[in-house]
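ESCALATION

Customer reports they have been waiting on this structure for their group meeting. Please prioritize. Original submission:
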Amino acid sequence: MAKDRGDIIDLVEEAVAIEKAIDNEISTSTARSTGSIEVATRRKPKKVHRQNSKEGAINVGNFIHKPRSWKNSRRSRNGYGRGLPKKGGAGGKGVWGKYGSELLEDYEDVNDPNFDSENLNNGDIELKVVVPEVSNEELKKKCELIILEYFESNDIQEVAQSVEEIVPLNRRDVFVQQAIETAMDHKPSHRELTSVVISDLYGYVITESDIIKAFENLLANLNDLILDIPDAPVVLGNFIARAIADDCIPPRFIVSTKEKSDDNIFQEALIRADTLLSMKHGLVRLDNVWGVGGPLRPVQALTRQMSLLLQEFVSSGDVEEASRCLTVLEVPHFHHELVYEAIVMALEANSQDTEKAICNLLKAFDSRVLITRDQLERGFFRVFDDLSDISMDVPLAYVILDRFIDLCRNEGFLTDNIIKRFPSRGRKRFVSEGDHFVSRDKLNKAHEY
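Update from on-call: job pushed to the front of the queue and completed.
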């Protein structure tokens, strides 16, 4: 009886345990389902991207076979994009990106040997603009280029802009010094341009102290300058006097500078400047201290200089001196006047020696390109046009000119245009009579008639 009661108790406890297990399982499954429902409720529903049908697409059921060209398409494939290419079309493997995009990116390469992780964006790094110091020799070369370009263009605004960009503010005296040194080795017209540019830049780009310091350095270096420029003291004295006349430096500069050295050359330059300033109306006359430039000279003065040049050459026969004198005149556009005066001189002389000398001079000028072919032709054409008037003073001008043309043609520097335009009036009569040379006595008798 007791055994049966014990079995019943075991069966009841077993049934209770099974019931509890069933209840636990039901509650667990209910909690899971409830949690999944809550998760599903919180999850954002996926947006379905509607795609339009493309040309060449094949619709099989719910699957679209896209063309092969779509394989490398850079459009977004997750359904959230706007259909635009990545990175504006500059993305992709093995590409560099858009032009200039590296300037907009802010990153540090940890593999860079110069990478410093301790000072990265911690405020200890301060960037400053560092301008390298230019040596004195290099600065002089740059200033010389500015001056040489100014001699060609005469553009003072360009000089001012170049000096402001290239020459440091505390070294502008180097520009003034180099400008004067360069001008001392050039023509008087270039020295005039240098004085003008110093006067125009004074108060804007250069100061009084810059000009004074430049003159002091030039006076100290006169012993070296005189080796290349024998008249350096005179030229420098002219520059000092002109600067005082232009109110760039005070007149007391001469008195205060004389006490700094007892050197003869040093004193000679200052005495030259003092003499020019002490002349009557000296400040006014200093405007032309370098003389009047070639293009500004009167035509009569240029013609007189050319006539003296030709007379000196006929007497001496020095081609080098004649070439130097022609170059100093600085009127390449007026060289046809020299050709005209030379031919007229040969016609009036009626001497084979004079004609040969003039021919050699014109040939030397042509070979050295001191006189261009255009200026040479223009001078001969002027003689041809005025030959009727010249023959009134020189009756045998046609014969003499014919002989002179033959002589120049044999030397080989006449052009075909000159030979073609040579006038033939009276040429046949004299050639037929064999009158190739007319003496001075015959010319005088012709003048008397």
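Sent to customer with the following note: The first helix runs from residue 2 to 42.
Escalation resolved.
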